[in-house]
Structures are given as C-alpha cells and as structure tokens.
Design a protein that fits this description.
The chain is of the alpha+beta class. Helix content is 64%, strand content 16%. It has 6 helices and 7 strands; from the N terminus they run H-H-H-E-E-E-E-E-E-E-H-H-H. It has helices spanning 3-24, 29-33, 38-91, 162-202, 205-222, 226-245; strands at 98-102, 105-108, 111-115, 120-124, 129-134, 138-144, 150-156. It is elongated and about 110 Å long.
Length: 250
C-alpha cells in the first residue's frame, strides 16, 4: 500500500473513533472529549456497563438452558433412530459388510455372491456348505446351495495361488459359522431391539429435566429485579447527561 493509502486508512480509523465518541456522548465536542466532563462520561459508562453486563449474563444463561432442551431432544431422536435402524438391520440384514473375494466369488457378512456360467446369485451363508481340493494345475471349490445343488468353481493355479484359495475357503467357513450364530441369536436380538426401542421412545427424562431447568431459569429471570433497576439507573444517567448537555444519549 502506498503512503497516501496508509494516511487515508488512518484518517478513516480516526474519523470512525471520533464519530463513535460523539455518538456515545452527544452534545458536542467538549462534552465528548474534554477532560472536565470525564466524570459525567464515566457516570454514563458505569450505568451502561452495569445494564449490559446483567443482560449479557441473562442472555447467556437463557441460551444455555434453551440449548440444553434442544440437545436433549436431539439425543432422544438419535436414540430412537438408532434403535429403529437396529431393528431394520435385524429384520433384513441384507448382504452385510464386505469381507473378501476370489474371482467369481465375493464374500459378505451374510451371503456368498456367486457369478459363474451355470449360476449367478446370492447364497445365504447359514444355509450353504463349501469344500475344496487342489491338483497340481487347479484349485476346485464345491459349493452346496440351500436347495442342495452343487456349484463348482475352478481356478488355475497359474492365475491364483493355492494359498490364496485355501485362505478364502477358511474365511468362508468362518463366515458360515458366524452367520449361523447370527441366525440362531437373531430372534432374541430382535426382541431385545424392540424392547430397546420402546425404552428409548418412552425415556424422555433428559428432555423433561432440561425443560424444567429452562422454566426455572425463565421464571427466575422474570422475577429478577436487578435488570429493571439497572435500566432505571441508566435512565437516570441519561437524565443527568441531558441536563448537562441538552442532548439525551441513545
């Protein structure tokens, strides 16, 4: 910035400060700046500051109480939503989370997705069986579906290492065991999830406590005489300034 730019900026800052001073202490230059009227300005500042401090404290307290009500309501909705989503997942778990894949097979938490020439679809893990064998040139996976039909998936060892196939088979076996446990426990989990939803829906104690606190704060502030008294003190300070200068402050 050029020197004249800094001068202009400084001039604007000074002008703003002077304008603010004249606005706060109306009546002319001497009343706004002269040292002999410093006590009168301080009297006005004291009354303004006292009211401003009380109002700021009251607003902050009231905003906090209202915020607590909103927070409690949000938390209640979140608990209900989480319980509802838990029930939905138990009723229709879908594929579940992705676990692993091997060529035409993709393993998920609850299903094995197959995409071969003779079959394409999802096989529920808790209703299938899998085994494998290996030759020098190929690995073979035998899948038995829920209907008893078998599906053969063959991998050339030149394309996929045998240890990779074996690891995938182990992962499938473990996923089958976990899926069977899930299916066995699902009715009990669903009953518990419904009970959790009922409890979450009906437990509004946090909201009620927050609302009660808000009502207490509102009632206490309504009966607090300090702010009305501070307003009267400020009005009296305005009167004194007007008597002195002929101009009433804002």
């Amino acid at each position: 910035m050029h020197a004249w730019g800094w001068v202009l900026l400084l001039a604007l800052v000074v002008a703003a400060a002077v304008g603010r001073q004249l606005y706060l202490y109306p009546g002319g230059w001497k009343f706004a700046f002269a040292s002999e009227y410093g006590p009168a300005r301080r009297d006005l500042d004291r009354a303004r500051g006292a009211l401003r401090g009380l109002e700021r404290t009251a607003r902050k307290e009231l905003a906090g109480a209202r915020g607590a009500v909103d927070t409690a309501a949000t938390a209640h909705r979140r608990r209900v939503r989480d319980a509802e989503e838990r029930i939905a997942r138990l009723r229709d778990p879908g594929r579940g989370g992705y676990r692993d894949e091997l060529g035409a097979l993709s393993l998920y938490e609850y299903v094995l997705v197959v995409s071969t020439d003779d079959f394409s679809g999802d096989l529920p893990l808790h209703e299938i069986a899998v085994r494998s064998d290996h030759t020098r040139t190929a690995g073979h996976l035998y899948l038995v579906g829920p209907d008893g039909r078998q599906h053969l998936v063959t991998y050339a060892t030149a394309d996929i290492a045998e240890e990779h196939v074996r690891k995938f088979v182990v992962d499938v076996h473990n996923a089958i065991a976990a899926a069977k446990s899930f299916q066995r426990d699902r009715p009990a989990q669903l009953r518990q999830a419904k009970a959790d939803l009922h409890q979450a829906t009906n437990d509004t104690s946090e909201q009620e406590n927050a609302q009660l606190h808000l009502e207490e704060v509102t009632a206490r502030q309504s009966g607090d005489l300090r702010i009305p008294a501070a307003r009267q003190d400020l009005a009296a300070a305005h009167d004194r300034w007007q008597e002195l200068t002929g101009h009433r402050p804002y």
